[in-house]
Every structure is written in C-alpha cells, then in structure tokens.
Amino acid sequence: MQTIEADVVIIGGGGTGLPAALTAIEGGIKRVILVEKRRALGGNASMAGGFLFAAESKRQKEVNGEMDRDVVFKETMAFHHFDRIKPRLLRVFIDKSAETIEWLEDRGAAFKFGHVESMAVHILEGMKAPVGGFSRVIRLLGDKFQKEGGQLLLNTAAERIVCSEDGKIQKVIAKNKNAETIEISTNCVILGSGGFTGNRELLKQYFPDHYDDVYWTDSVPNMGEGIQMATDAGASLDDRCTLVRETTYSFETKKSMPNRAGMEPRSIWVNNRGERFADESIYMDNMATNALVAQPGMLGFALFDNDLIDYMVKNPSPVLGPDPVSIRDIFELEAQTGEWCSVANTFDQLASWMGADREVLKATIEEYNGFCESGRDALFAKDKRHLFPLLKAPFYALKFRPLMVETVGPVQINEKMQVLDKLGSVVPGFFAGGAITGGWQGNDYHLFGSALGWAINSGRIAGENAIRFLQEK
Predict the structure, then answer these.
(1) Distance between CA atoms of 319 and 302, rounded to whole angstroms?
(2) What pTM was computed for the model?
C-alpha cells in the first residue's frame, strides 16, 4: 500500500474538480492532489460544446447584452416556484459567474456573448459543433495545474472517504489501474465526481416518471460512486434529483452526424400519430423535452421539405454538426436503411413510414401551412419568423428521441459548497460541487449553459472555501 500526505484531495478531474484544484494551488495550498479514475482529465466537461452561463460579464457589457443578475435570480426562483432550490446557493452561483468568465480568459480561453435563439449565453470562441469544444479549455487548466506543482493521479479511482469518530476528514482510500491501494492522509476533500448517467438503477430510482431506456446519451457514463462515498462520510442526500435533458437527438452516432437536425425551428414536430405536439422553436428549453417524453414511445419526427433543406444548407447552424452542407446527402443515405430517416414525394408515404394515420398527418400539414400563410401559429404561437410552409417535394422525416445530458444531485451542500450532514450541520473539511450536488436546479433544468457554468463556478467556490478552512486550522 502506498501512503501519501496532502493538504487537500480533489476527487474527480472534470469541470468541477479541475477548477477546484487549480484554485487551491493558485491560492497557496502546497500539497494538492487531484484523483481521476479515467486516463485523462475532463469528464463530461470535455464533451461540452462551450456554452457557458454568466450574468453581467465584461463580454456581455461590451455588446450591451441584457442579463442583470438580480433579474436572473428572481426569474429563476419564480421558474422553479422555490421548489427544491436553495436561494443562497443559486445567488452565489449567479454572482460568481461573471468573474469566472474572466478567470477562464486569464488562463487562455476566449468567449463572446451571444444568443442561441432567444437565450443569452457566453460562447467559447472557435466552437464549431455542440459537442467537444470545451476540451480545449480542460487541457489549458490541466496543464496549468501541473505547472503550478499540483499532483495528478490518473487511472486512480477514489473508493472511500474516511472520517474520525467526531466526523472530521482523515483520509481518502483509492486504487490505481494496477489495483494497488493508495492511502492519502488529509483533513480536506473536495468531491466533484459527477452524476450517474451510466447507472440505470439509480436513474430509475430517482426518475421513475421521466427516465426510460429510449434515452440516448453521449455523456461520460458516470456510475455515481461519489454518492456512496459522500454518504459514508456523513453527507445528507436529497430525496429527489434533476434529470438534465434535451430533445431532438437522432442516429446512433455522435459528432460525425447531424444528430440535432431536428432542432431546426422551421421544421414541424409530430408524434407517431401524425399530430403536432409543440412549438418547434423551443428546442433549447427543457419544456421541449417534457413535451417529447409525453408522446408515445418518447419519440418524435421532424418534417422538412426540399426548400427547408436548402435553407438549412445556406444558413448553417452549430446544432447541425460540423458539416451542415452535406445534410441532404446524409438524410438520403440514411433513408436507405429506414431506421432514422425517410425521404418521399408525398406525406402519405412519410405517414406509412412513421406508422401514422395518413389523414391525421395530412390535416396537420394543411393546418400548419395555413398558419404559415396567415403569419400566425394559432395553436402553439410559434414566432412567425420560424413559420416555414412545407410545400415542395421531396419531403423528409427525421425520427428523434430525448437526450440525457447529466443528472443533478443528490448531495446536500450550502452556499460555501460545504457538505451538510443529516442534521444540516457542516461536515468539517468536506466540500462538493458540480453534478453530484443538488439545490441549484428544480424539477426542470433552467438557465442555458448552467450545467457547465455550475460545474466550474462551484468548483472555484469550493476551492476558495477549502483554502479558508485550511488557513483557519
């Protein structure tokens, strides 16, 4: 058995643990050990495209962007109806967010303030696709952590956080890839081990009304081991968690396909009965996923005509993937297998492929085209700039299902990222952040870019408060 001493041990080298570790070592803590069970840093943060929530940043002010932190706070609390949200936790996240953009830029990243549809967000410069762009930032932070003298243990899985009889952190037990036990003596731990998207048992336990195996996920399949570690160290757990979901995910592949083509707001979404079920322009909002999972089989179909495909090629969007110009060819090639796409000269043919009633689909298309002609969606009130009639053959149908992005919870913390026990008291020296913690989201995910934003901000806040804890010892 190998024995090491550390001032602070960070468990998980992703979007929370890495900023926490770098914050600690830049703040003067000498012996900082970062334990990561995989062979590389990043976790789900490496899968992120680069959309980051922040309010009142310099980048926002440069373009006179409107995102007042008090307005965001009040609107978010109202959205969640004060249910499952800790106001002080949400407030510290929002108030820290602008500074975190600057912190990242000081370390080599670059952002611009913009909009995805109606949602304001900070966008990583150079982002070309909705997946994987943030890995560049992870590399920057990881390199800096090691240059500053931080110790990185890759291929090493933390297994247990050991506390004394009076509840104080004593050590972390881990194993490396050779199954060798490593005992790290420490009085301070920051837990950032991520969620449990890879654990079907926990998914069905926490989300019996939302989760089904139909979900696709391109996230790192974390198993939620940190939950048991936290519990054994005295942490209190929430009874409920949040499932961060998105809609319109197609195909069984990742970056190389236009997986998110169904997000085109000018398309029509129908279920397998041929009925339209939502305003298609809300694709970036969690309520779109709620609408989808309420459909038979949790499946939907995005419909396009020839002119809309032409429009998508001429007006490429990041959601379409790295090569939107080839979208027509991809659809036609995939239609040969008939699993995810169909291309037809009539809507009757599309209805047959979808399993929908021809007359129902025909009535849906006629109604929608009438909305486009009048300039008013009399059903879902979709913005008229997205009303695009489907008139010209060939017609295209793309099947889609929900995407599972991340889980939120259930470890309870306060606004200093200190882990709380079952009596609501602080577990001395124990901090946590990121997806494993609750209290910053309610039943539905809210604030575009906040999953990545919360990971980084909570990691920084945990690191700062860990410094204070160690200095006060």
Answers:
(1) 14
(2) 0.92
